[in-house]
Structure to design on (401 residues):
């Protein structure tokens, strides 16, 4: 066979790299694990228009109902008029505006820590903190149910990555005591995003102080909700320590976008110098930083939003008694209804959607095999009548299960 013919043969028989992915996508589809996007056609709020249908949405992290608040919209317009639209450059070139500076000062004061640093997302913040603080010769100790961003950060850092069983402080203490790492970092969700439970922060602080470790708290789902003024998990427990590095997001309860890290001045300065997701990315639009100043004021002053949310949580818990599925232990806005099998969770979610109720089915690999669930996210934007509708629907579906 000629060289030309052989080349032609190879060209027609070889599968393209993109085509090789098709069978793997088919496997995801067949196992009920293929993810799809819904089209939101209204503001982010409890009563929403999704894929052409009006639904009550129980799937947003907008815990205080601020994402569509008119005051934030007005603040965004004011910010756009003052600062324009884009950030234009990284913070260390010419992207750090007075709006960013004012927000960092306000955030540090709000969470009662010396200094804060803005990041574009919580994912970037976690990557930045972990990779800037630890590396080869160090060790990261992580709760097994941590958010993916903390796991990815640990792996990227090249530090040794040790995971402990969810909430098992005895296992964590043994690992801390036995490890010879030059620098130790414990990383944990403050509120676990798929279970809704709160980490034992005071005990974690005590362990870190005893074993000379830092503690990175990811308070993405606690900031704005926990604590007397919504300042988060540290205020909720009344704890303080120089070993704490505190991260929270600003696109959930705060209703806007972004994230921040707060802690000791030297830690924040080191992140400013060495956290690659901070140094090498364009700053968030300053109009959003300006908007978040209004959001912080609302969070601090309007405790009735947190009280209303607490009442809705209690109402849902009471209403779900007697279902064939159980609510997992959680006193937060995240109320997971454990179904078990992926197919069963999908059927319940579909049946709810047919009744105008949008509740996501959370499946592996986000949660362990056999623990598929409905992640019911409550918001201060919900009304008691909407909770009643959800509870009635669950009992109807459960009766036929």
């Amino acid at each position: 066979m000629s060289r030309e013919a052989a080349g032609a043969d190879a060209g027609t028989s070889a599968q393209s790299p993109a085509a090789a992915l098709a069978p793997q996508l088919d496997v995801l589809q067949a196992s009920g694990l293929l993810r799809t996007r819904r089209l939101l056609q209204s503001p982010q709020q409890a009563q929403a228009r999704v894929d052409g249908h009006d639904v009550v949405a129980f799937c947003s992290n907008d815990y205080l109902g601020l994402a569509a608040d008119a005051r934030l919209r007005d603040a965004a317009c004011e910010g756009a008029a003052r600062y324009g639209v884009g950030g234009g450059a990284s913070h260390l070139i010419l992207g750090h505006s007075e709006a960013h500076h004012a927000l960092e000062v306000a955030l540090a004061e709000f969470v009662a820590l010396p200094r804060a640093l803005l990041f574009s997302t919580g994912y970037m913040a976690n990557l930045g903190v972990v990779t800037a603080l630890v590396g080869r010769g160090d060790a990261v100790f992580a709760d097994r149910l941590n958010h993916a961003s903390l796991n990815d950060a640990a792996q990227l850092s090249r530090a040794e990555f040790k995971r402990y069983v969810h909430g098992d402080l005895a296992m964590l203490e043994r690992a801390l005591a036995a490890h010879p790492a030059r620098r130790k970092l414990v990383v944990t969700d403050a509120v676990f995003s798929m279970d809704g439970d709160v980490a034992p922060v005071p005990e974690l602080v005590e362990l870190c102080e005893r074993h000379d470790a830092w503690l990175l708290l990811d308070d993405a789902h606690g900031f704005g909700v926990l604590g007397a003024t919504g300042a988060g998990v540290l205020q909720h427990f009344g704890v303080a320590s120089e070993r704490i590095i505190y991260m929270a997001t600003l696109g959930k309860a705060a209703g806007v976008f972004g994230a921040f890290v707060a802690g000791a001045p030297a830690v924040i300065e080191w992140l400013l110098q060495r956290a690659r997701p901070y140094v090498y990315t364009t700053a968030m639009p300053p109009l959003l930083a300006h908007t978040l100043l209004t959001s912080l004021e609302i969070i601090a002053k309007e405790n009735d939003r947190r009280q209303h949310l607490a009442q809705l949580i209690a109402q849902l818990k009471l209403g779900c008694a007697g279902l064939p599925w159980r609510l997992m232990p959680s006193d937060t806005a995240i109320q997971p209804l454990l179904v078990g099998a992926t197919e069963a969770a999908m059927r319940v979610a579909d049946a709810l959607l047919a009744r105008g109720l949008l509740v996501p089915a959370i499946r592996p690999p986000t949660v362990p095999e056999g623990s598929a669930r409905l992640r019911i996210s409550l918001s201060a934007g919900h009304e008691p009548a909407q909770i009643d509708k959800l509870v009635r629907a669950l009992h109807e579906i459960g009766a036929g299960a």
About this structure: The CA atoms of residues 132 and 271 lie 6 Å apart. Residues 303-319 form the longest helix (17 residues).
